Amino acid sequence: MIHIRKKPAVLEVHLVRKLCVAAIAILVSSQAGADDDLMNAARRTFKPIPSVVPAVKDNPVTHEKVELGKMLFFDPRISASGIISCNTCHNLGTGGADAGPTSIGHGWQLGPRRAPTVYNAVFNVAQFWDGRAPDLKAQAKGPVQASVEMNATPEHVINTLNSMSDYVVMFKKAFPIEASPVTFDNFAKSIEAFEAVLITPAAPFDQYLEGDPNALNVQQKAGLKLFMETGCSSCHNGINVGGQDYFPFGAVERPSTSLLPTADKGRSAVTKVASDEYVFRAAPLRNVALRPPYFHSGQVWSLKQAVGVMAEVQLDAKLSDKEQNDIVAFLNSLTGQLPKIEYPILPTRTETTPLPSTGK
Amino acid sequence: MIHIRKKPAVLEVHLVRKLCVAAIAILVSSQAGADDDLMNAARRTFKPIPSVVPAVKDNPVTHEKVELGKMLFFDPRISASGIISCNTCHNLGTGGADAGPTSIGHGWQLGPRRAPTVYNAVFNVAQFWDGRAPDLKAQAKGPVQASVEMNATPEHVINTLNSMSDYVVMFKKAFPIEASPVTFDNFAKSIEAFEAVLITPAAPFDQYLEGDPNALNVQQKAGLKLFMETGCSSCHNGINVGGQDYFPFGAVERPSTSLLPTADKGRSAVTKVASDEYVFRAAPLRNVALRPPYFHSGQVWSLKQAVGVMAEVQLDAKLSDKEQNDIVAFLNSLTGQLPKIEYPILPTRTETTPLPSTGK
């Protein structure tokens, strides 16, 4: 019997095995299909950060401009007090932003909004939370002159730069066809050129978008799926996972006034259109995990909490704890490779350099 | 006649030539002797900056400590406000000091004295203008806690560091035999280790001290000679051309109160000895040309003017314009090669990191 029954048993086992293999193949194929669908959907919605420096409108990014712009970015003597540089509020060591909630400027005044990151800012549709500067060269002129930030004037900047021959030489090299290159415009263009190199490619999510299905783990993929299906990606999309368009903060429910102070009307101050009240540029989420606190008001210190707030006030969605964790895991996959920056040795002030002024 | 007279004439010419050559040889030899004397005198008075990192007492300088110390040096979250780092006042881009006259700290308060440079500070006999800290590890604890500077507490520092696992791991690597290495002492030791690498070798003056007579030009040698003969080097000597001992500011004549404010009694506040009133550590003059303004009060913006003041109030000497220029030329030869520092990417704050506090 044993021998007789053996063959059918073996056959059965073979049959079961075949069926199992087939079933697993169907399952795997189904999972693979779902994975492919997710990757395809992601590729339609987002774009990877390039590994080469992007072109900038009206401002070719040359080595000379980048080197000069780096010095200007780190030079506190651009400010009236002599202690605030671009890097003070856009600290490259802490995600391109400062400690927050909002920035401390000249005279220890608190600014009205959280400092946006300079990393990948070149990819945003426009600059500032309300998009009031069309590009980084326009943006760079703002904080320098804001009384609550660097409290300087274009004249102070130009006098400071002209007082140091090393700077004058660098401007001549960066703008070789101009007779008098030390201008406020060229100051801003140099900073824009430096900021154009502040891109952070090769995040796990970039590798995923480039076709590596293993660049994201299971939880990150679940988070990505949720991020798209819940509707986050309807505003946070494109190369910067945001930063491409303007939306009301509180689309379905008004956030608390600590998150959305009533005094700050957002983009309507720029467009003078009533419907733009409390409208802001969708925050670019590249490297978002590196720079709490969140929102323009900088009052939320946890990325998970920020995700929960956004789901509620923008999408009328109540995410479970697991769902929030999954989305946070996905957001962590947006942290790219930060460029290595050598701290610049700045030209030495001369007797014609404007003196620092700490008063208001 | 012409022919007859030719020979003696030729002989005469030869004789004159020989005499001239001999005379020039004597002059050259005399000049060479004077040059040798100057170099020998300089070598007895000063020492070159070494090109290797010096040993530090009770704190072996390891790669791990230096890397950690660099992060701590640049981390503004050490301060209560989250925006002031060691580098804010000891800016490595501007000679290791800030814009001056004195430093701006927490709440925009003005400190009482000019920030001393961190470059080559490891070679000073003690730290601060009054030498109240015996070494850099003791010094590093001061500004962190000073209400007019970073306004933090050891507890704030330790809580901040413990809240970020990357820091905890780095402390474990830097202090591998300690069970609980995240301490205020080790924080200070790490900063001291980083500051020990902030040395600036290979200045023209170092090359001169190493035996290259052409490393200084004629004016710089004249300035060096004056610097020693006028008496400057009786206080400003050794490896740091100063920083080795304490002397009254106004040894022969009291400087104006803008330069020597009466409220700041100098070292007597440390030693409680009346004769130490208005006594300060002789300023180390390495890289002095990189960091105006001068003196502890930071009211003199020109190195030449500073030289003139010192000659008058310390040495009762009235230097001519040329002599001042010569000494300034010599002081310019003290500018060495500054180390290249990669700007550190800092650990990301977590939900347990203390929040910044901008209030007083």
UniProtKB/TrEMBL annotation, chains A, B:
Cytochrome c domain span: 64-335
Signal peptide start-end: 1-34
Keywords: Heme, Iron, Metal-binding, Oxidoreductase, Periplasm, Peroxidase, Signal
Gene Ontology molecular functions: peroxidase activity
Places the protein is found: Periplasm
Top-rank taxon, per record: Bacteria
Coarse class of the protein's main subcellular location: periplasm
PANTHER family named among the record's database cross-references: CYTOCHROME C PEROXIDASE-RELATED
The name this protein goes by in its record: Cytochrome-c peroxidase
Organism from which the protein derives: Bradyrhizobium xenonodulans
